[in-house]
Write a structure and sequence with these properties.
heterotrimer; A mainly alpha (352); B mainly alpha (326); C alpha/beta (500); A: 352 residues; mainly alpha; ABC transporter involved in vitamin B12 uptake, BtuC; 76% helix; globular; C: 500 residues; alpha/beta; Rossmann fold; 2 domains; six-stranded mixed beta sheet; 22 strands; 24% strand
Chain lengths: 352, 326, 500
């Protein structure tokens, strides 16, 4: 047998399923395992798991209002997950989404607070651009440290999370505090600084932005030379360098892009949900966004499904909390277990 | 700010004393991670492991302190923290060593798992934020504690501080003076060579991962059971991540990890003390406490900038071992 | 060993192999890359479990499930890629995995050093037990490997392609050591695909092809052509024919080039050379004497600390790989997987790796996948890259086809200068022939070719002129046809210089 036939046979044997099926199978199995372990966590809390899950499902999809809540929760997760997918494809591990989200919220929110007199068509784009810029610049700090000094972006982006959150807390309590107010919060954003909503629902421009980003990110990854280069850097930086790709520039782009999207998510949430700057404006989107990108296999469609799933888990867990008194931290636990299960299923499938 | 409030003996001694204590949790985690990484396994989930140790340890100590085992409830709590850490280590080991999943992805997800499950279990079972453990009383070392200044700073500590000091020595001894240590380091540098020398690579990596997460779990439990005597969300304050940075700073050496951890402990202590003073001395040019709280994180970034780009990392760090490939 | 069968997913690496070994003999295992030699020995050594077959050792049936057990039964293996922990000392490497007399404490190093000195003296393996392994030369590292096996009481010693990395003189030393060990009653398996060495050192020769034994015969009864035919399964030309070179103007000029390696130590120390259109300049040398750094500096992947590189009259020193490529340089990289190809990208994507951002492959900012596919189909056909589809990931290609893909991509750029580094590493004979023919055809069409290879046979077969590299310097240049292999060997070992 020649080397050629040996290797082609070896390849066939390693591919029992068509690519797309294998790609979908693992997350589905992982999701089921995650919910299964969730059963265990609910049981040890003394509740009936099936009933609890039913409440969860009701809470997330049980009616127009619930579905609307779930969609609103999906938007920021989706935007962050899409940005991180691009970064992770280049194997740039930006885990500072939380900090970039806060800085985006701060810059965008400050613009909204500073120019209350501007008309909405001017103010809102300025806030969105400012939000994206805030996240982008914050992520670039880690990017420059990586490119110039070889500092691992994993730890630096994470440290920058804490710094960003503390900084926003300070700004909300100090310089941006509502004049005459007692709470550590800024004044409320004027009506012109709130993203417009559609059809008399609370579905807002941010949801539309998230939807538009899905095909854009898809095109970026698969249909542009930039996406080609990002993927090449992610697969093997030494080959990319050989091929004349400027690896450092790609790393900076990956951080900037994911940071900008995280910042965008931040200002969207502040403009629509919180309507003011304060110390707690995220609810852990930073890490959930990472898991969304991973569970969605860094593919825009997968990320969309994963974001919807995680949003439903979070909204559903709130109902479960109200009905059964189960802590809604269960949602985070299940999310992590799902991703770990997918990792395990994937690894098992690829093991020879 | 009135600097004379800071630059006096009593204050500096208090600062050094607090700094040493505050260094303990992060030092334990860093020591553990040194063992793990020396074997070639990167545990980015360290922060989640510490939370798991912290919540399990706290809950165990809290429930036991009203029972027949009240006298040793703190120590039992610490032991439970160790076990919880090892359970997290087992998850990581199965995923990354046996199944060869990506170590970065597995580690980051482990952090979310630790925080998610930890918070869930705490809120489900205790819920209140006023629950406290009894903590450990200081254990003055007779004789030594009478040395002026040093006695107070070094030899009037709770038992976990002495234990940690001993563990620094023990980890060094394990890594550099025993055949186990030689195996651990060999597996981290060149797993294929270790395999052909008759070393069970995966078994060694399992052991190193479990030792590492046991220490990280202990670190988390020391923080919640002994030092803060409480648990709440976010209580670890990223100490696991700081420990990861410390390992790089320490060039994978236990002695240097001790030095680095003391630096962080001092930064932490300064932050607490100045914050306390600022509140007393309002209006004397106070530093916003948020900036003080940033201190450890800024210090971590500075440390990384200082150490970055220089080698010394175990050659096979982060790479799973596949038999027959090199 | 009787009827050994070892399957990998979709592959039968050993299909019922019989092999026997006597004390005091050197038994060569001869075969091409992929014939199953290394797999067979890994089965014997306990690294793999056989799917069928029996192993008998000194009259007892054995089945090793790990190298540890094999070592315990007196087996020792010197792998092709040395199995040494670089930061450890020689002595630490040798005792690694062995029980210490004062377990769990590590070995007493002073005592171990003493013992190792006496052991190395006994077999003529000069080595300092206290030296860190990374400071040793390749030949010395190999001696550490042999010493390691002997320390563990090896009676059976398996050497996998032990001469691939050595200078001709070091090869002679090694073969002498092997004869001496055999003389002391050790049984030695010598894995190789080099006919001359096999004939020179062995008592018996077993030829493997496609996982099966072709024949086991005494060395006295064998000759090079017969062995080559058995090994490949057909008549082979031991050398590709080529006409004399017709060199023209200088296309690539390197002047006084210096650079440092990844550790920051000097790796190139004033290298100067010229390659003309229509000639192949071969750079001979033992691996690790600056060849990789030279390759990287010329192609823009490593900074030169001083000196110049000129391509077709334009300065190329410290410019980007893209700019250097635009000057007319194509590059077949020495490390196919770390530099040359993206294994999870499609073959089509790999074939336009450098050109993907240019027209016609990108138009108005968008990739034109149809045009990329057409180009890929054209190139795979022209260069005989065998694949069911250009949309398959590149990792599905065999080594030979992967190298053809790289060749196709680089030559599609219509280079004026071609830098070919280790162009046939790990390939089987037919792929080697293909690559050699292609290089000569390129030369004849006027391309200036710089060939860097640690395979001396390849240098001798292809080069019109030969330069020898030693410790970051060119220590001699001579004409290719009629070059004296002994003289080249001495230069490769650094013991002789000729004036430039």
């Amino acid at each position: 047998m020649t080397q050629a036939t040996i290797e082609s046979l070896a390849h066939d044997a390693r591919k029992p399923l068509p690519g797309w099926a294998a790609h979908i199978a693992a997350p589905v199995v992982g999701g089921l395992i995650g919910l299964g372990i969730g059963v265990f966590l609910i049981v040890i809390a003394g509740a009936d798991p099936l009933a609890a899950y039913a409440v969860m499902f009701q809470g997330a999809f049980g009616g127009a209002r619930q579905i609307q809540e779930t969609i609103l929760k999906t938007a920021p997760l989706l935007i962050m997950g899409l940005g991180l997918s691009v970064a992770f494809r280049a194997r740039v591990w930006n885990i500072g989404g939380e900090g970039q989200y806060y800085m985006g919220a701060l810059v965008g929110g400050a613009i909204g607070l500073a120019f209350p007199g501007w008309p909405s068509p001017l103010l809102i784009p300025a806030m969105l651009v400012g939000g994206a810029a805030g996240g982008l610049l914050w992520a670039l700090i880690a990017g420059l440290m990586k490119v110039r000094r070889g500092v691992s972006e994993i730890i630096s982006t994470l440290m920058l999370n804490y710094i960003a959150i503390l900084f926003v807390q300070y700004m909300a309590r100090g310089p941006l505090q509502e004049p005459g107010g007692y709470l550590p919060e800024s004044a409320q954003l004027v009506a012109a600084a709130r993203l417009p909503t559609f059809f008399g629902t609370r579905i807002h421009l941010g949801v539309l932005i998230a939807l538009v980003l899905i095909p854009l990110v898809f095109a970026l990854i698969w249909s542009t030379p930039l996406g080609f280069r990002l993927r090449a850097v992610g697969e093997r930086a030494s080959v990319a360098r050989y091929a004349g790709i400027q690896v450092e520039r790609m790393i900076l782009f990956a951080l900037a892009f994911s940071g900008a999207l995280a910042g965008l998510a931040g200002i969207i949430e502040v403009s629509t949900l919180h309507t003011r700057l304060k110390g707690e404006i995220s609810g852990g989107y930073g890490f959930s966004g990472i898991l969304v990108a991973l569970l969605g296999r860094m593919h825009p469609l997968g990320v969309t499904v994963a974001a919807l799933f995680f949003a439903a888990l979070t909204i559903g867990a709130q109902s479960m909390h109200v009905v059964y008194g189960l802590p809604d931290a269960l949602a985070n636990a299940i999310q992590a277990i799902v991703v770990l299960s997918v990792l395990a299923v994937d690894a098992l499938a690829h093991r020879r | 700010m009135d600097w004379s409030l800071i630059l006096n003996w009593g204050f500096l001694i208090a600062l050094a004393t607090a700094g040493i204590t505050l260094a303990v949790p992060v030092l334990l985690a860093a020591l553990g991670e040194i063992v793990t990484e020396r074997a070639g396994v990167l545990n980015l989930g360290l922060d989640g492991v510490m939370v798991a140790g912290g919540v399990a340890g706290f809950m165990a100590a809290f429930y036991l302190q009203n029972g027949p085992l009240a006298g040793i409830s703190q120590w039992l709590g610490l032991a439970v923290g160790v076990l919880a850490g090892m359970l997290m280590g087992l998850i990581l080991a199965v995923l990354t060593i046996t199944l060869r999943a990506d170590q970065v992805v597995a580690g980051v997800t482990l952090v979310v798992l630790g925080h998610g499950v930890g918070n869930y279990l705490y809120r489900q079972n205790i819920g209140t934020l006023t629950a406290r453990t009894n903590g450990l009383p200081p254990l003055a070392l007779p004789g030594l504690n009478r040395i002026p200044v040093l006695g107070e700073i070094l030899f009037n500590k709770d038992g976990t501080v002495y234990l940690t000091a001993f563990l620094v020595f023990l980890v060094w001894f394990l890594l550099f003076r025993t055949t186990w240590g030689l195996k651990i380091r060999a597996v981290g540098e060149n797993p294929a060579a270790s395999d052909t020398s008759g070393i069970n690579v995966n078994l060694t990596r399992y052991a190193a991962t479990l030792i590492g997460t046991a220490l990280a779990g202990l670190g988390g439990a020391v923080l919640t059971v002994v030092q803060l005597r409480m648990f709440r969300e976010g209580i670890m304050g990223g100490r696991g991540w700081i420990a990861l940075a410390l390992v790089i700073f320490a060039r994978w050496r236990p002695g240097l990890a001790l030095a680095g951890a003391l630096m962080f402990g001092l930064a932490d202590a300064i932050q607490y003390r100045v914050q306390a003073l600022s509140q007393i001395e309002r209006g004397v040019g106070t530093i916003p406490y948020e900036f003080l709280l940033m201190l450890p994180y800024i210090l971590t970034i500075l440390v990384l900038l200082y150490r970055a780009g220089r080698g010394d990392a175990p050659e096979a760090l982060g790479r799973p071992y596949v038999k027959g490939s090199d | 060993m009787h009827g050994i069968v070892k399957r990998f997913p979709g592959v039968i690496a050993n299909a019922g192999v019989d092999f026997d070994l006597l004390p005091g003999e050197v038994h060569a295992l001869l075969g091409e890359n992929g014939a199953g030699k290394t797999t067979l020995m890994n089965v014997l050594y306990g690294l793999y479990r056989p799917d069928a077959g029996e192993i008998w050792l000194r009259g007892r049936r054995v089945a090793f499930s790990s190298p540890r057990e094999a070592i315990g039964q007196g087996l020792g293996m010197v792998h092709q890629h040395f199995m040494l922990v670089k930061p450890f000392t020689v002595a630490e490497n040798i005792v690694l995995g062995q029980r210490s007399p004062r377990e769990p404490l590590a070995h007493d190093m002073r005592q171990t050093h003493r013992y190792l000195r006496s052991l190395s003296g006994q077999y003529g393996l000069a080595i300092d037990p206290a030296a860190p392994v990374w400071t040793l030369s390749v030949g010395e590292q190999q001696r550490v490997e042999i010493l390691k096996a002997l320390y563990r009481g090896a009676e059976v010693l398996i050497l996998d392609e032990p001469t691939a990395v050595l200078t001709p003189q070091e090869v002679d030393d090694l073969l002498a050591i092997l004869r001496r060990l055999a003389g002391e009653g050790k049984a030695i398996v010598f894995i190789s695909h080099k006919l001359g060495e096999v004939l020179g050192v062995s008592d018996r020769i077993t030829v493997l092809r496609d996982g099966k034994v072709v024949e086991t015969l005494p060395a006295q009864a064998a000759d090079e052509h017969g062995l080559a035919r058995r090994m490949v399964g057909r008549e082979v030309l031991l050398r590709v024919s080529k006409g004399p070179a017709q060199p023209g103007e200088v296309r690539l000029a390197v002047q006084n080039l210096s650079a440092v390696n990844d550790r920051g130590l000097p790796a190139l120390r004033g290298v100067s050379l010229e390659v003309r259109t229509g000639e192949i300049l071969g750079i001979a040398g033992v691996a690790g004497n600056g060849q990789t750094e030279l390759e990287e500096v010329i192609t823009g992947l490593r900074r030169a600390t001083s000196g110049t590189v000129t391509i077709c009259g334009h300065t190329a020193t410290n410019r980007s790989p893209t700019a250097i490529g635009a000057l007319g340089l194509a590059h077949i990289p020495s490390d196919r997987y770390a530099m040359g190809m993206l294994r999870y990208f499609t073959i089509a994507e790999n074939l336009v790796l450098q050109r993907v951002g240019q027209a016609p492959f990108t138009q108005r900012g968008w990739l034109r996948k149809d045009i990329i596919r057409q180009e890929a189909q054209r190139l795979t056909a022209a260069f005989d890259v065998r694949t069911p589809s250009v949309e398959n990931p590149a990792r599905t290609l065999s080594g030979g086809n992967a190298q053809k893909m790289i060749l196709a991509r680089e030559l599609a750029r219509q280079p004026k200068v071609l830098l070919a580094a280790q162009p046939t590493r790990g390939l089987d004979v037919s792929a080697i022939e293909y690559v050699h023919r292609t290089l000569i055809a390129q030369r004849d069409s006027g391309v200036a070719i710089l060939l860097i290879s640690t395979e001396l046979d390849e240098i001798l077969a292809l080069s019109d002129r030969i330069a020898v590299m030693y410790e970051g310097q060119i220590v001699g240049v001579m004409d290719g046809p009629g070059a004296d292999i002994h003289q080249i060997g001495l230069m490769m070992a650094g013991s002789k210089r000729s004036s430039l």
